[in-house]
Each structure stands twice: as C-alpha cells, then as structure tokens.
C-alpha cells in the first residue's frame, strides 16, 4: 500500500513537471508580465513584429496566430460602442446585435463635476466594450475647450485642466477594470477641426504645460491609461502622431508612459519619423493601396512593408521595433490575455440607469426667473413643446462617435411620458434644421422634412404658445456638419436655422418660456433677457427624454455646472480675441497661433474689466438655495512641503434636497510671471437636505500653487501671499482667505 502511494506521488510529480515544461513562459500566468513579454518577443519573427504594429482592418491589428497571441480590436468611443463596420470599409457590417446604450457626451459628464459619475461612466461603457469583445475603447477625449466653434468640443471635458484631470482619471480606471484599455485622445493640441491634418500649432510652453497637457498627464500617471491616441495636427512642425517632443520627451520620457501610442486614423505621414518619434501602432492611413481598395492595402502602411524594407536594407535597426512590439504585447497581456477579467454586459438596465443618472446630474439650469421651473403639473393644462431638437435623434451623426442605439428616448417622448394625463402636450417644430439622419449607413429613419416657410412655422408656434400655460423650446445645435461635428467647425456663435427669431417670437407670446439648448458648445443668446428660464442640455444619449423631463418637472433637482464659459459674443473668447485661425481649408501646412497663451476660458474672462461672460464657468442653479459661510485655513503660513486645509460650511437654505458644487480657486497675489487672476484647484459636490449644513474641506499642496516657468522648464511655486477663493462659479465668489507660502 505504501509502495503504491509512492508510485502515485511520483507519477503525479512527473505529470506536473511535464505539464510545467510544456507551458511556455509567455503563456505562464504565474510569471510576471514583463518576463512573458520578453519571451513572446523572442519567439516572434521580424515579419510578425512588423505586422503587430499596424492595422489589418479598419479597427483591428493582428496578434500572432501561430503563438496564440490574440488580435487587438478597437472601437469608438467615447460615448458608446460604435456599430460594426465592414473589414475594410466604413459601411455597416449589418450585424443585428451591435446596438448599444448611448451615454451622455463627455461635456455632460464634465458638467456633473462629480468624479463618482466618471467612475460609473467608465465602468458602464467598459462593460459594454468588454461584452462586445473589444480590446481598446477609443476615448475618453480631453482636448481643452479653447473656442466655442470647435466641432468636437462635445466629446471633451471642458475648458479647465483641473476639472478635466479630476474627471478623466476615474473614467480611465472604470473602463480598465474591465480588462479593456482606454485610448485617451487626441494627444495633443487638437482644439479645432478645420485643417486638423494641416494645422501646425504655435503655443508657448506655459500654455502647453498649464492648459493643454495636464488632463493627459493625469490620465497617464494617475489613471494609468494603457494607450493614448496621437492627434492629427502638428506641433513644432512635426505631426503629433510621430512627435519627438510630445511623445518621446514628454509622454514616454517625463511621464514614464509604458502603454501604446496609437495613431489617429490616417495621422501617420512618414515611416522614419514613425519609427523614431514614438508611434507604436498605426491605424487607418489612407495609403494609395487603401484608397484603391487593394487586398494588400495594409502592407503599404508607413509602419508595414516600408518599415520592413528599411530594416532589411540596414537603414534602421530593430531597437525601436522591439520597443513598439513590447508595448503592444503589454497591451494584449493587460487585456485579451488577462483571463481574470470580467465578461462585461450590454444594454443592461443598470447601464440605462447610469446613463440617466449622469445626464440628470449634468444638465445645467442657467437661468430661472420667478421660479418658472420646475413645472408644477397640478397648475398646468397645456404645454407647448417647440423645436426640432425635441424630436431629433442625436445619437446618429457627429463623426466617429456616432452610434447605433438600442433605444433613444427623445425629449418630447420623455416629457409626454412624464406628463401623462395630467396635461395636454402639443409639439410644433418652429424651424427646420437638419432633416437628414444618417451616418455611415446607420439611419435614424426619421422623416423631418417640412417645406413650410419660416414665417408659417413661427406663426404656428406662436399660436400654440398663446394657448398654452408653458412653452418649452428645445433647439440648439445638432450633430450635422458645422453644428457640432467632427471634421468641421461652427461658422459663428449664433444659433442657425432662424432659431433666434422663433425664440424671440415665443417670448412675446408667453412669459412662461423655457429655452432648452442642446449642444456641446456655448451659443450666443440675444434673447437672454426675454425668456424666463434657460436649461443647458447636452447630447445626453439614450435617456435624453426622461432625464430632461425629470429636471423640468422637478423630480430631479438640477446640480450641473458649466464646464466652460459662455461668452456674450465670439470676440469675448480669448482664442478669437487674440488667436489666429485659418478658416479656409488648406492642404498645405498652416500655422495656427495660440497667442492668448494661458488665458483660456475663465482665465481670460476674469481679466476683462468691462465684459462679463453671459454665463460663467462653474455656473449652474438649483431649485433650492445654498448659503456659504466664511472660508478658513488651518494655518496662516505653509511651508513648501506642507499641505494647507481650507474649510467652509455650506447650508441648504431652501426647502428641498439639492446638491451644490463648491469650488476652490487659488489666486497668486504676486508672481514673477503673469498668472491668471485665479485658477480652479479643488471642487466638491455635496448633497444637502433642507436646512442641513456640511463642512467642505479642501487640501492643497505646493502643486496647486505652482506655475510652469518656461525659462527654467520646470514647475515652481513662489513664496509669498496667496488667496484661497471659495465660489459657486467663476464669478460668484463667496469668500476669500489669504495665506502665506514660505
Ligand atoms: C477620429 C478619432 C476616432 C478614429 C476612429 C478619427 O477620425 O479623429 O477620434 O477614434 O477616427 O474612428
């Protein structure tokens, strides 16, 4: 018996060791990833390595079939999972199981000023990406809102680097918890769309460091983003996708990024630069082969055969190639080859609930005279809803972020469902905007054509407005070219399609007029003083209708705050006051000068003595009221290595529960270089019951007091006096407290 046991033990040990020997290191999950990467790399042929660093289809790049290393699959991003397109075409693949939940656009997320909402967003969209078997989600976008004309602002997180940084980190973490990589875009300085491939951005180092890079840095260093997308534009005359300064020096050098730099689709222009200047993975270049639809189109990519040829001819070594492959392998290990990652889920009620919650928290109440909102349905018999955006599907269009949704509830349907039998709801369109509804073969199926004249439409709207207790105008921009759309910018700040005339006419017809602006950008409001209430709504996705209705009827108390400034006119925005734009399309490289430097958004508005913004950064009203006490610091003086605590009590003085975003700005009272009057360095969203008081605490360290010294090429905090400013918006200052930095 004893002998038998020994035999069994021996056989078992043998079997185990034999098995151990058959698991190659690169597949051995008990071994550190870096060792597995080296082993995989050593097993790959030169051809396999080159294949791994460029696309094989519109949205995928190859792994190594022979070794069982999976392919990489990408998807847009950033608001939902893009429907499947054909292998090598933008047309739909016509799957019947690729509809998704549309989450609110990132401007709305930023307007929540709530990092918990970012985490929920990332987790939810990450689960959808995972369920759809995607390796990389192409998002989030954190390009700074520099001009209200940028067609892609709706995909980004507003004008302030601190707000964008705090909001991007949880998004990244939430997505990557699913074993799906983010691809933070578009790195860097892609702040307008016209000439996005040919704009050479001229910006000073301070603005680069203080305004345009912090959100990317936070995504990389704090969020630990696994990939980043190079932008289309140029910086220092080099395309951002292969840029010595942005990629090698800053991203991989200073910030220690160990992930993959993915080119924006068609953002690669030169093999040698791509090899040397930091690009790791090339996607979507419109090479000759590709436009002609040849079967080997992808071989013509800059980082395909041309690279192989250069290696074979001895013009470049393999060092850069190995570095790129290592990075791509690392990405695959973190995602596809992580067998412990969750399975994800799609179109779940939890995802709809998340979309709705984020939307409700992001909608901003800009104006509410005589408490015209919320609408009390007990006192209302008839509500007129006017405007095309009340019915237009907004999830289709706008460029690469366009979606095919499982459901999208329009504002009108949301309002009707909420009002039920309590009142009559009548819709008239008021104006004709964009009647089309198609993107890459996804069609809304809505027929919005209307041949009536503007006069007829206004007359109809005015008649209904006069007969109603309330008028809700729902208009703004849409996602067609020149409104809020990739590869195009707006031509001005004003609303199109004669909407200003419609609003002015409605204001005369009914004093209970609520204007709901749907956009990802600021608009001009020549009628601002004529209307009772203004709501900034965004592209809020699947739950657009229920979320808006909940705000209008008061089921939810508005708590969103603007993530960017609304100027009165375009020239009040610094990029237009000082910057130099090239509005005509150019195939030649053109310089675009950011002459305003660090004075972007409220940093510029603060300096203007005579002009106040229409609505300030950080502004947003509630159905309740908040009272702020005096801010206090825990000490009068802080040393360079100390932290300072600022506290302020905030009380809900109204009679319903609400949430307030308490904002902390820092002002450097004397400095050797010009500094903004104040800069956001902290915020907290707190929920308060009626009568409740909470003490809000902010902690700041040296970095909150520092600026980038371009002469010394480093961040410095200068000793001296600073002011901590507690505010409800950039122009609604509640109290100040001075302290000294030793
Ligand atoms: C856009 C990216 C997008 C990519 C893939 C590009 O044109 O700039 O944001 O992720 O296409 O669709």
Which secondary structure elements does this structure contain, and how are they paired or packed?
Blueprint: H1 2-22, H2 33-43, H3 46-52, E1 60-61, E2 72-76, H4 106-112, H5 115-131, E3 136-138, H6 161-176, E4 181-182, E5 184-187, E6 199-202, H7 205-212, H8 214-221, E7 227-230, E8 234-235, E9 238-239, H9 244-254, E10 260-263, H10 271-276, H11 288-291, H12 305-312, H13 319-334, H14 349-362, E11 364-368, E12 382-386, H15 411-419, E13 424-428, E14 438-439, E15 442-443, H16 454-467, E16 470-476, H17 499-509, E17 513-518, E18 533-537, H18 544-552, H19 574-577, E19 590-593, H20 602-605, E20 626-628, E21 632-633, E22 637-638, E23 644-652, E24 658-668, E25 679-688, E26 693-700, E27 707-709, E28 714-716, E29 720-727, E30 733-741
Parallel strand pairs: 2-3, 3-4, 5-7, 6-8, 6-19, 7-10, 12-13, 12-16, 16-17, 17-18, 22-30
Antiparallel strand pairs: 1-2, 8-9, 11-18, 14-15, 20-23, 21-23, 23-26, 24-25, 24-29, 27-28, 29-30
Task: Explain this structure.
This protein is of the alpha/beta class. Helix 4 crosses helix 14. Beta-D-glucopyranose binds next to loops.
């Amino acid at each position: 018996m004893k002998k038998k046991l020994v035999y069994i033990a021996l056989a078992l040990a043998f079997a185990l060791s034999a098995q151990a020997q058959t698991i190659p290191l690169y597949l051995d999950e008990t071994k550190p990833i870096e060792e597995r990467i080296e082993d995989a790399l050593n097993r790959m042929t030169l051809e396999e390595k080159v294949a791994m660093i460029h696309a094989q289809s519109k949205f995928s790049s190859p792994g190594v079939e022979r070794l069982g290393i999976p392919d990489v699959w990408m998807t847009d991003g950033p608001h939902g999972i893009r429907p499947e397109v054909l292998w090598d075409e933008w047309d739909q693949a016509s799957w019947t199981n690729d509809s998704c939940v549309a989450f609110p656009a990132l401007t709305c997320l930023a307007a929540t000023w709530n990092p918990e909402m970012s985490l929920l967003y990332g987790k939810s969209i990450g689960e959808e990406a995972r369920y759809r078997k995607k390796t990389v989600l192409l998002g989030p976008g954190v390009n700074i809102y520099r001009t209200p004309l940028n067609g892609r602002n709706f995909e980004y997180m507003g004008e302030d680097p601190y707000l964008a940084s705090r909001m991007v980190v949880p998004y990244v973490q939430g997505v990557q918890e699913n074993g799906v990589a983010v691809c933070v875009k578009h790195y860097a300085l892609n702040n307008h769309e016209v000439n996005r491939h040919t704009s050479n951005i001229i910006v000073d180092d301070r603005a680069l460091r203080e305004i345009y890079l912090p959100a990317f840095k936070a995504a990389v260093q704090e969020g630990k983003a696994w990939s980043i997308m190079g932008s289309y534009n140029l910086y220092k005359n080099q395309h951002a996708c292969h840029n010595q300064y942005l990629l090698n020096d800053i991203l991989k050098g200073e910030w220690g990024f160990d992930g993959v730099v993915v080119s924006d689709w068609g953002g690669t222009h030169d093999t040698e630069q791509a090899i040397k200047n930091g690009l790791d993975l090339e996607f979507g270049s419109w090479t000759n082969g590709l436009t002609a639809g040849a079967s080997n189109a992808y071989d013509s990519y800059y980082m395909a055969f041309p690279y192989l040829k250069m290696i074979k001819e001895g013009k470049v070594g393999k060092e850069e190639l190995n570095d790129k492959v290592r990075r791509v392998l690392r990405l695959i290990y973190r995602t596809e080859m992580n067998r412990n990652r969750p399975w994800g889920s799609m179109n779940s009620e939890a995802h709809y609930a998340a979309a709705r919650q984020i939307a409700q928290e992001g909608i901003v109440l800009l104006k509410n005279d005589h408490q015209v909102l919320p609408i009390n349905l007990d006192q209302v018999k008839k509500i007129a809803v006017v405007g095309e955006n009340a019915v237009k599907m907004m999830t289709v269009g706008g460029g690469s972020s366009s979606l095919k949704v499982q459901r999208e509830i329009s504002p009108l349907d949301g309002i009707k469902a909420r009002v039920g039998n309590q009142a009559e709801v009548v819709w008239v369109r008021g104006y004709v905007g964009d009647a089309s509804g198609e993107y890459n073969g996804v069609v809304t199926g809505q027929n919005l054509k209307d041949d009536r004249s503007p006069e007829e439409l206004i007359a109809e709207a005015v008649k209904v407005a006069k007969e109603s207790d309330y008028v809700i105008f729902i208009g703004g921009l849409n996602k067609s070219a020149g409104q809020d759309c990739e590869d195009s910018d707006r031509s001005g700040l004003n609303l199109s399609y004669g909407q200003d005339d419609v609003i002015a006419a409605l204001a005369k017809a009914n004093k209970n007029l609520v204007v709901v602006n749907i956009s990802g950008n600021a608009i001009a409001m020549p009628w601002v003083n004529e209307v009772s209430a203004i709501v900034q709504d965004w592209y809020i996705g699947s739950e657009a209708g229920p979320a808006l209705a909940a705000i209008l009827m008061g089921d939810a108390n508005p708590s969103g705050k603007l993530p960017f400034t609304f100027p009165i006119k375009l020239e009040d925005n610094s990029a237009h006051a000082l910057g130099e734009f090239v509005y005509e399309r150019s195939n030649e490289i053109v310089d675009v000068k950011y002459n305003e430097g660090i004075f972007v958004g409220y940093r510029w508005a603060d300096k203007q003595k005579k002009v106040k913004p229409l609505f300030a950064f950080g502004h947003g009203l509630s159905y309740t009221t908040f009272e702020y006490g005096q801010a206090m610091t825990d000490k009068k003086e802080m040393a360079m290595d100390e932290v300072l605590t600022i506290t302020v009590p905030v009380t809900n003085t109204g009679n319903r529960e609400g949430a307030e975003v308490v904002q902390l700005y820092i002002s450097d009272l004397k400095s050797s270089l010009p500094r903004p009057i104040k800069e956001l360095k902290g915020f907290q969203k707190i929920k308060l019951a009626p009568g409740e008081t909470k003490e809000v605490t902010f902690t700041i360290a040296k970095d909150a007091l520092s600026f980038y010294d371009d002469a010394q090429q480093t961040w410095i905090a200068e000793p001296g006096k600073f002011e901590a400013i507690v505010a409800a918006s950039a122009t609604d200052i509640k109290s100040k407290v001075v302290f000294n930095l030793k």
